[in-house]
Each structure stands twice: as structure tokens, then as C-alpha cells.
Design goal:
homodimer, 434 Repressor (Amino-terminal Domain), Rossmann fold, 3 domains, DNA-binding
Amino acid sequence: MKKINSAPTMKDVAREAGVALGTVSKVVNGIPVGESYRKQVEAAIKKLNYQVNSYAQGLKAKKTYTVALLIPNTENPFFAVLAYHINLALLKRKYRMLLCCTDFDLNLEQEYVRMARQNKVDGIIGLTYNPNLVIEKDTPFVAIDRCIDVHIPCVASDNFAGGQLAAEKLADLGCRNVAFLRIGSSLTNEPNKRKAGFENGCLARNLNYTMKILEDNDSYEEFDRFLSSNIQNGKLLFDGIFCVTDRLAYYILKVLQRLNVKVPEDTQIIGFDGVKLFDNMDYVCSTIVQPVPEIAEMCVELLLQEHTTIKPPLVCLPVHYAYGGTTLEFDKNSEN
Amino acid sequence: MKKINSAPTMKDVAREAGVALGTVSKVVNGIPVGESYRKQVEAAIKKLNYQVNSYAQGLKAKKTYTVALLIPNTENPFFAVLAYHINLALLKRKYRMLLCCTDFDLNLEQEYVRMARQNKVDGIIGLTYNPNLVIEKDTPFVAIDRCIDVHIPCVASDNFAGGQLAAEKLADLGCRNVAFLRIGSSLTNEPNKRKAGFENGCLARNLNYTMKILEDNDSYEEFDRFLSSNIQNGKLLFDGIFCVTDRLAYYILKVLQRLNVKVPEDTQIIGFDGVKLFDNMDYVCSTIVQPVPEIAEMCVELLLQEHTTIKPPLVCLPVHYAYGGTTLEFDKNSEN
DNA sequence: TTGTATGCGTTATCAT
DNA sequence: ATGATAACGCATACAA
């Protein structure tokens, strides 16, 4: 396509206004300047429709007002909503956002981190999976859901409490025999604590529990088999299931429907994330809701704090339970 | 956070390699240079972990390898998936993507367009709603779903054909009395053609049809009333409903469930977009699927074509029907 | 072929 | 308070 050629520069403005270059710069940057000069310059700016070139600015200032967000994709609604809120939080602070979808590609993750060095961006917010990700000490980085290094702040939901809450809710809702279903990376990360929290909650409430943990490259259908094998006389042995994500919960819901297990009458399901199909609509399933807007704000805040006071290595934000049709409505209205 | 200070520059590399600045530049840009020099420079680059500063590069070249994507948000899965595929298409061409969520804010849309001028980005792909959006002729811009100007290429699905297809499918599936439901901006855009296409299809297939068109600021609940008022003896007068989007279709599905109308037995629903809750999972409803990856590719292709041959003012890409549980399974497997 | 010098648009440090 | 000038890191036209 045609190149953008003739953007007016400060020099043009200076000539138009009949003042020196430096004066224009001052006006643009809000540095006090003689009233009459000010007006002239402003008039010239308006007339030429001048706008600073942020690339020249970035070159000079080593500051680009751009932040890179590394996430696997925006097809998963959790990531998509996260991206949206981070974008919002950045916009509030006049920052732009470079969206870098990594598709779970470990090399691509590293590539993007490298790209961010050399003041191409002012910082990175990353939800990554590369266990060997190299982040030089002078690259401002905030991690989501994974503690990469003590010097890199990590922001996450309180996953342990979330798991615990799920167990408690199932207990409150009358379950006695529950299962925990999980699939995902074996990487050590915060969401892994959901399991421990759930176990803890089950023990506290005297719930019988069973775990079915799959690895990343396993097939979801393994769950089909697992559930089928736990059906006796047409009834599922579990009256409650906690799924590590809403995505999985949604999948399990379909499986149970096929197996003629009634949800929530026979078996209740709680997921994790708080995914909605469309904004302002219902949750996909009863779920432990992650505080996405707060996570976004926290990430941006931590990333942009200039005052290099001590950075918290791990920030856990509170989650809450929300009804979404896959549990009994006992406490439908208790959004927490 | 700490500033990135000491990034090595070409000068550092030149010194390290014992060559001149220009030589380094040439190596970096793949311009032939003496073999021994090449190796020395490459060694120095590796040693210092040097990387070009794209801001200095952009300043010089008036090319930033960055494209801005303007969409309302990434909370709506259609937008989210679109963003993902555009990101992919750009990545293939070594371009970065600035994600600009406009939240349907007309001023913000204009603001972003302005920002893009002055070679801050090499071009813009925009799904916008501002009817008065000013795009200077020298700003590379590709529009999605709306013809802004003859000089600005517009990429969209074949919405007319999609509407027609919806009518045909409903007819094939045995419907005789159908309704078209729509809510959205009254702006003239491509998706509006869904209505005309549907009408056309109904006429061709002798379907009785009713239209219920709401405006942007109307309440969805208006549809509740509309449907309620069309129930006689506990039966809905429509045996088929075509909704302008999957989002609406999903909403209507919930309404009908509340009204005890069985879907798809009593009434079948077809939406538009092809939204899936999670990737690789089922469609939210039976739907007319937009070819999102192709739309993304086309946008990027049109935007980046250097050879300013003639640009097509409007490109319509083919849609197809997909079963998603809200129609009878008559042709479940016909993904067209 | 390789090196040198200039300019891209800004900002900041100087004299004035 | 204002204007001239250097420097940011890179690319390139030009000289060697």
C-alpha cells in the first residue's frame, strides 16, 4: 500500500509558527513558554495537524509507552478477557499494547521476550509456559500464574483458596463423593494449587474424593473412559465434580449428558475461571471466578511502578464462587 | 520498574568486531560483505547479544513493521478469534500487532486512527462503527464489515449469501413459519445484508417470515416480549428463527427454554458467526460460519500489498452452514 | 568492497 | 525565556 510520506515534523511547525525548534518541543511537552509563542505554536500545530512521532521520541527517551502482552491465544475466552482488561488498564495510563500470541510455542515465547529487550517495549506481561524462559534482569516483566524467578513479580488468583472453596461449596450443596479432574501442563505453576486446595477442603469437610489427573498431551477422551468406568447401575459414583477449568467443565458436562447423567440433579459440576460465553450473559457453568479486571490492574501497576521499591514476588487475588447452572441453586445468589 | 539502560548498539558491535559502523549495518541487513568481516561481525553480535533497535530503524525507514487492529473488544468471541487470526497472519509476515480496543467508542476509534498517522504504524485494520471516521488518504487502511470509502478496501463475509443460506436451511429442515431477529447498530454495514439475503431466501422457498428489528440501544428483553406475544396454546408460532448473530441466538435459546419452547423440536434456531465456546469444541448453536482465518489473511494481504495496483473496494468471502444443536440433525454432517 | 558522514524527528544542554 | 546544537541508533549515499 502507499507509504505515508509527508508527515509534518516539529521543524515544519517551527517554520510555520516562526519560532525555534526547541520552543515547539517545549510547547508540545507542556514546558512553560511565552504566552504569545504558545498560541502561535499551537495554531501552527492545529493547522498542520501535527503530531509527535513516537518513534523519534522513543529513540531519544528510551521509552516507548508500549507494553507487550504474551499469552497463548485469544481463542480461549479466559485469555481473551484477560487481554481486554490489560489493554484497558494500559490505556488508562496512556500505554499501548502489543499483543503477542505464542500458541504455547516455547521458542516463540523466548523470541518475544528477546524482542522486548533493547527498549522496543517498556515491559512485558507474560502468561508463559517455557520452563527455561530467559529474562534478563533488566527487562521489566510481570508474570501471570507462574513464579518464574524471585525477582519477577507473579500475579495470580488465589488458586488454593479457590480449590478449597470448590470443595466447600460441593459439601454445602450436599455432595458426599466428589472427583477432581485436571488436564494441563505439568509445569509448576499457580493453577496447580487448585488441586491441593481442593484436597484440603475435602478433608476439612469429610468428603470422599478421587483424583483424575491427565497430562498435557493426553486425550480428553481419557475422561470419558474414566467417568464411564465409574458408573454403576446407570448412576455415576460421584455426586460432585470439580474441574480445573471451565473449559474442562464444559467438556465434562457434554460427556455426562451423553452418559445420561443429570446435571445438576445427579451430579454437580464446578469449574474454574469464570468464563462467560458473551459478556453480560450467564456463566458457562457454576464456577470459581477469577478476578480478571483486578489481575489486569495489578499486573500493569506492578509493571509500571517506577519507584523500584521492593516488588512482591507473588500476589494472590481473591476468587469467588458463582452459580452457573451446573450446581443446585441452593445459594444461587451468593456471589461469594 | 528499572529502566533498560545499556543495550548494545551497532557502534558497540563495530568496536568489538574491529570494523566500521556501516559494515555492521550491512551484515545485519544481509547486504553482501567480505566473508571474514561477516564472521567477525556475527561473532560480535552474538557475543554482545546485539539486536537492532526497531525504533531507530523505524525513524530512519519510516516503516515500523507494526499494524494496528481496531476492534471493539476481545470479550466477544467473534472479535477475539478475529484478533487471533489477524495476529497470526501478521506474524507470518514478520509484522507486530498493536491491539486497540475501542469499546464502540466513536471518539476512541478516531483517536486511534489519528495515532496511526505519522508512521507510528504501517497500517490499520479496523472494524469500526464511527460513521464519520476520518481516514486521510495516505493512511493504509483495510476495513472489516463496513465500506467506509471506495478507496478503502472492505473485507467481509458474504452476508447476503449467508442470510439466504439460513433461509434455505430452515426450509430444508421443514420450517414453514420463520422469524428474523436482529439487534445492532443502524449503521450501514455489511452484516445488514443478512436480512436482505434471508428475505430473499424466504421468498424463493415460499417461507412465511416475520421480522423483528431492534436498535442498538433497545433492550434485549424486547425480544422476550415479542416471542411471548407470539405464543398460542403454549406453542410458538415460529418453527424457525434466524438470529443476526450467535450471541443473539444464544440469548434467544435461553428465552425459549424459559418459555418452554423445545429447541430444536418445536422451533429451530440458526445464528450467524460460527462462535465456539472453546476452540475445538462445539458450535454454540447451529450457525452460518464466517471464514475468520480467510478474512484475516485477506485483510493483511490487502493492507501490506506494496504494489499499489487497484484495490478491490469490497471482498466477500464464502460462508457455510454448521450444525450446532439448535436445528434438527437432518444434515448434521453437511459442513457445506 | 569498506569506511565516513549525514539525516531521520526529538529532546536536552547549552549559550544568548 | 528563547534559540542553536548535539545526541539518540540506524541506514545509506558517497568517498576512499
